[in-house]
Amino acid sequence: MDFDEDANLDLSKVEDARGGGGGFSGGPMVVGGGALGLIVTVVLALLGYNTLGDDSSSPAPSSSANLAQECAVSNAQRFELVQCRQVAVFDDLRDYWSTEGTKALGAQYADPRLRFFTQGVNTACGQATSAVGPFYCPGDQRIYIDLGFYDELAQRFGAPGEFAQAYVLAHEFGHHIQYLTGFESEVRRLQQRDPGNENKYSIALELQADCFAGVWTRNASGGAQSLVESVSAEDIKSALQAAGAVGDDRIQEQSGGRVNPETWTHGSAAQREQWFNTGHSSGDPKTCSTLDRV
Ligand SMILES: [Zn+2]
Q: Which of 113, 170, 262, 279 lies at a CB distance of 3.0 to 4.6 Å from 213, suitable for a disulfide?
């Protein structure tokens, strides 16, 4: 993928809380489990939203001064840095979803925030460690990412490539769109009413976020203001590889567990790839109705 080398990055919705524990108070860790943690990310958000949904645990906004320096146009190497690529992708996602994306869905747009952290972080959904992987918290409308996750994605899950990182952020952004459309709270309601199918609903939520990531990918290099200038066939392969790599069946195999669809909450590798493809080939978020197809 290529970025617009001359564009200024908008850091106004980005919070850099890397280093120094990022405001983590060192209390008991509520989630963990390494790769398995990926499975619980949204469950954490959902549970957290129900039980710990007050904003008082959110730390004060962090300074993004270093990030501004690192990702300034004057740094010719800025797009070799994962954090600057993520900010560029984040701004491109905002650009698409604030206009065509939410318009197509008939939803009102509001920006999420992107917070980088290391080790652990306090959120409106409770405390989380890096072990859970990237996640979205509807309670404070933030996407939380420890950039170290991308090393794990490359090494442990065999999904290297810059676009794999873009896909992950686009998936989390998709969860924010689900918050805006009300699909996230609808799923939560369905889960409470029909606990026997809790995982099925969770999978529908996850697969729609994959589909939304595909939709954005299709539209990413569209606009004149677009920060992402091109997305190659190789990039799409890299995103599909990542979508498959973090499918529940693969994670269970990786972690030595028996593959047991009953405990799946994100969908299989094949399902995740399929829904990313659906979004990518249509470029239309209205094609992402996963609920009646899981
Ligand atoms: Zn997810």
A: 170
